[in-house]
Amino acid sequence: MKPYIYTIICLLLLAAAGPLQAQTKDNGSCRYAKTPQGYLMVLREGDNVLELLEGLTREQKIPSAYFTGIGFAQQAVFGFYDFEKKKFNPKSFYKVEMGSLTGSIAWKDGSPSLHMHGVAADKDFNAFGGHILSLTVGTGSMEIYITTYNEKLQRKTEQPLNANVLQLPCIQ
């Protein structure tokens, strides 16, 4: 598909979604836009994905959310949790395509708390996946679709695993 046709299709889809309120980056390009279901983020080369998601959560006072995304990463640091040592063993991958990015937004001790997983593929189509500890956008962009919820959800460190666990309100 020719790039201009893709751009026109995206603009038509966004127009059909309803009015958008956009936040602009220093260079004039938008990082996120408000949608009827939440937000759409389009991040560019060098952007720190976790930092910007946390910033959006604070700025827009998002009570909780679910997100999905795709795009190119300059660096993706995955962590595999060592249950005996109670910590993540990190491994970095460079210049990978994020074929899938998914996670949730909640709060812990007054700050946004993200839980993100993903699957990345390298130029040889080898796939890697798991918990994402850090993620930096590479050449091109990364699109993240955020669906917000009205209920403010919390995370709490639970033992014996020393893991942040999403806390659900009890239904009466």
Automatic annotation (TrEMBL):
Annotated InterPro entries = PPC_dom
Q: Name one GO molecular function term.
A: DNA binding
Provide the PPC domain boundaries. 33-169
Q: Which is a Pfam family this sequence falls into?
A: PCC
* Keyword Signal listed: yes
First and last residue of the signal peptide: 1-22
Q: Which terms are listed as keywords in the entry? A: DNA-binding, Signal
Q: What are the transmembrane regions?
A: none
* CDD domains the record matches: DUF296
Q: Does the keyword Amino-acid biosynthesis apply?
A: no
Any idea what this protein is called?
DNA-binding protein
Organism per entry:
Flavobacterium hungaricum
| Phylogenetic placement of the source organism | Bacteria, Pseudomonadati, Bacteroidota, Flavobacteriia, Flavobacteriales
